[in-house]
Amino acid sequence: MASAAGAAPLADVDTSTVSGRKRGRTGYLLLLPAAVWLGIFFVVPFYSLVATSLFDPSGSDSRGYDMTYHVANYWHVFQDYRGPLLRSLWYGALATAFCLLLGYVLAYAIAFKAGRWKNLMLVLVIAPFFTSFLVRTLSWKLILADDGFVVNTLQAVHVLGSDGRLLATPVAVVAGLTYNFLPFMVLPLFASIDKIDHRLIEAAGDLYANPITGFFKVTWPLSLPGVVSGTLLTFIPAAGDYINAQLLGSPNQRMVGSVIQSLFTDANNYPAAGALSMILMIIIVAMVLFYVRRAGTEELL
Amino acid sequence: MSQVAEAPASRDPDELADPASYDGLALRRLTKHFGAFHAVRELDLDVPRGSFFALLGPSGCGKTTTLRMAAGLETPSSGTITLAGKDITYAKPYQRPVNTVFQNYALFPHLDIYENVAFGLRRRKQKDVDAQVRDMLELVELSSQARKKPTQLSGGQQQRVALARALINSPEVLLLDEPLGALDLKLRRSMQIEIKRIQTEVGRTFIHVTHDQEEAMTMADTVAVMNAGVIEQMGAPAELYENPRSTFVANFLGQSNLIEGTVKSRAADVVTVDMHGVDVSVPASRAHTDGDQGWIGIRPEKVLIGEVGEELDAPGNTIPGGVVSDVSFVGVSTQYLVRMPWGQELQVFSQNTGRHRLFATGDEVELSWRPEYAFLLDAAQDASAGAQRMDADG
Amino acid sequence: MAWLRKHLVLILGLLVLVYTFIPIFVVVLMSFNDPASRLIYRFDGFTLHNWANICEDPDMCSALGRSVEIGLLSTAGATVLGTLAAFALVRHEFKGRSTANLLIFLPMAAPEIVLGSSLLALFVGAGFAGQLGFWTILIAHIMFCLSFVVVTVRSRLAGMSDTLEQAAMDLYATPRQTFWRVTFPLVFPGILGAALLSFSLSFDDFIVTNLNAGQTTTFPMYVWGVAQRGVPMQVNVVGTLMFLVSIVIVVGSELNSRRRARALV
Prior knowledge:
The complex is a heterotrimer. Chain A is mainly alpha-helical. Chain A has a single domain (about 80-300), classed as MetI-like (MetI-like fold, Orthogonal Bundle). Chain A has helices at about 1-5, 15-20, 25-55, 70-115, 120-125, 135-145, 150-155, 170-195, 200-205, 210-220, 225-240, 245-250, 255-265, 270-295. Chain B has 2 domains: about 15-240, P-loop containing nucleotide triphosphate hydrolases (Rossmann fold, 3-Layer(aba) Sandwich), CATH 3.40.50.300; about 245-380, CATH 2.40.50.140. In chain B, the strands form 4 sheets. Chain B has a 6-stranded mixed beta sheet, with helices on both faces. In chain B, helix 2 packs across helix 3 and helix 2 packs parallel to helix 4. The longest helix of chain B is centred in the middle third of the chain and has 18 residues, at about 185-200. Chains A and C meet through helix 3, helix 4, helix 5, helix 6 and helix 11 of A and helix 1, helix 3, helix 4, helix 5 and helix 6 of C.
């Protein structure tokens, strides 16, 4: 009789309503240490940052600062540092776009083409990034050096002029950012693409979609959650980074992180540094919210 | 087939044993609700010691919740559970002599087969663990796999490990939660026989939860059909099948033709019902309604089909005027749908004995059945209850 | 040609992978470099000198030691706190779950420069500007590692069906035994992964550390400093060693799971 044939393990409604989390005090106790830590060293500092950004800018370390709700700080630092701020966002966006291109190819190859080497390839994506960020960035400095192989080749094929260089140009900075944040793009992309049922792509082919149409109508839309989280995970740290700009660029490629750092530690101008941090944070949050809403995957947050 | 005596109704408190002196598992007024959803309602049930007992019902009927309450994995909202006279309603799972074979086995992936089976013994600090584990692996024919990890075994082997892991603790009651659900059809058949063999061998009480009516009927000596948190009917498999007491049981176990009828007269041993102008009789022991209206039930394989005017081998209960509307030839039998004068289509399964010609769509036929096979159900019940999942099967 | 078309994506993917390894080759190569001058950063000749004299610059080794120390301590702290929180989030019901999830998520979403500067704003505001150093770095590292630990352990726990724990209880294991015999061994790979992630995040961090370090120097800060005035080749030795250690860990676990998979056949 057919009842047996249809007897794939039907999930009993009983069990699904059952799976209960434990109630009671233990949950709070387990969460408490982490919550307290994050409360004191993440939430309170954020409040301090907001407060600092509104201090009277005429204060100093020795005289102390007065809380004057000096909103003008924001306007002043924006005026003064508009260049690095906008440059950071622009470089971050460029690096994110390149990461998306390279990362998508790599993630797609791992998910669909690597076969039994899938895990190994995944591991190889992460492995280089266990080596110090700064040491790796320094070796890019060598690779892109003025008399190095890359520059010489590009000069030979006349992409670069005979006195053209890569170091200390935006190209080097964006290339460094792209390189350093690539895994943040590949891993979420892979997670998304790997979940796609390959038969869907075959079905698209069966229904007269050529591979390219099939990609844009099936694979790409289904991988959007990975694209969204990957671009966010890449853009946010890339826009805040200043190591690449400092090591591979010149003062002309100065990014906002570097400005904030030196306002804090060199100039001791805490109100300005706080205000600039806040502006960066606000811009990023606004962009993230806008982006996530447009992409329609709000469950990400 | 001989008539079967009425089963004791589990819902009838008069016939329940006294839990304090009963040596089996007794559930009394057991209730479980999750928020507003009542999974189990005031359930009364006696499971005799040493029996192979099946709780059968569709998804969401409360059978798994009942099982989990017996295991101690779920706390009842109210009611009591007693085992051999001892109240275990609120005992922790590790404090009661009850073990479970979980739906997807729940074998510990980090332990090998040997350690999985030894787990319960070690927790209770038992002696001679090794000898017991070896005996048990022998029983389930997995001695050679002792040092493998669960993921290295096939589904059927994992199933036997789960069984061994529970059985080795010599539980008073062994609970099996859809134990064969993850296996393919062929393996399921052989595991049914295997589990039945082991139960006979160890002589323990087995309670088996399943939604597969064939599995329940094959394995259990008592089947309780559960629906919407209550037990509809309980008894030996043949008795449930032959004499269902509700439309749900009639449809959920196999298939039934249910035809509207009006009771004309009630004698001591027979009830006569007017069925769309034809008088049919139903034995009084198979009439489960006191009302004037009722559903006359007859299993498709009990219905005989013949030419108009042909003398069918069935005195009484002959209904003329049918027209064949669909024919499915399945080899050993032929399944007909016959449209009756009152518009209803009845199902008829006819053995291909060669004594009849095959009828074709459009043929005029007469149907007939022996009165002792018919049953009468309460007209207030839904004639399609329990039938949804029985799509187009044989 | 058909072969090329069939394998085009794989080849491009492998090229991207090769690209990620280019700087590693350079790091390994430069660890054997015999530089003509400290100021010109290029390969001049082969030597084992750098490997034999790793601590030629004692400042580098003390910075390295400090980074390891901070890495271990912050990993321990973040792993314990984060694992407890992950258990709370997956296995316990309480009010304010979504607030807790947000609190875990935000530190991962905020740019490091903002995390670092807000923490500095707190320390300065609380009058600790003069005491920045080892402890403030440690506090900061535990803070930003914590969220990653919670997320890693949480996903491991969430993927683990609680029927295994029920099965243990059913087989006479008390709650304590259930935890140590079943839950913990099964979650352990997740905890280990979280700990490795924590260590590498802490060990590699520059931006947050640099803001809150005061006069203390960690290894990334040391590299940052020498990048301006001439890099000792031993930095590349350390880089190579880090790469080797991670490869050993990562390939070892891969081989292990492969061996297990093969045993299946």
